[in-house]
Amino acid sequence: MTSSVSIPTHDTMLWPTIEALKALGGSGTNQEIVDKLAEFAGYTEEQLSVLHGSGPATEVAYRAAWARTYLKSVGALVNSARSVWALTDLGRSMTQEDMTAIPARVRAMPSTRPRRRTRDESPAPPAAEDTPVAPQPDQDWRDSLLAVVQGMPPAAFERLAQRLLRESGFTKVEVTGRSGDGGIDGIGVLRVNLLSFQVLFQCKRYRGSVPPKEIRDFRGAMVGRTDKGLFITTGNFTRDAVQEATRDGAPPIDLIDGHDLCTLLKDLHLGVNVEQVEQVTVDNSWFSTL
After folding, report:
1. pLDDT band with cut points at 50, 70 and 90 for residue 129
2. What is the DSSP string of 178-240?
């Protein structure tokens, strides 16, 4: 049965999608983008409830997916295998007027003519200027990575933490840091099977060690809001800070230090390119058995 409710076309969702991602800090999951897009575009509850075909996807979500595909086709977005979409430099610089030419450009691409999408595709390859450097010893690449991260502006580091959590399975990730908020920088929801947990996080660009006072202050800000906390730093934690994070009788706080942060960025391929090098050796003992 065809719905009589008018649903905006995917062409009209291009600019709201760009705006939604900017508001989300430059990256977002499928649902986060749809929710923010609907908020910005002012879709009614009636429009949002219309199913695509027999469902379960809604018609708005279906058309929003096409809008993201069109934006990706022109290089405005990239997406990971974990269904997290991010603005590229081109996407950030585009204007509402630029959206007008996108549908015709995409439809003229033989490889991107409308087709049924079964799942999100792999991330786009690195840009030419992101040429991988020569292989480095393990600690060397970590030192280089930490130097880059520690040099980021505070707002950019918060967006990095936001992206990291999304890629790790968190949803509804928001950066909320403001003065007088006890150091809480953001909040997210982590779903584990049938249960979901609200997690507050704090992220600090330390070059040294985080003392226990920071952990206590963070826990104090969590009181009455959630039992789950995550503290991310580019430095490390003192032994007393680690003990404070797991102190008996107090809500535990999970800690991610600089070493852990580097590992997560590498495993999630966020700003880190990993090149597998084939090494061939001759097994002399194998030939002696013939």
Report:
1. very low
2. -TTSTT--EEEEEEETTEEEEEEEEEE--SSEE-HHHHHHHHHHHTTT-SEEEEEESSEE-HH
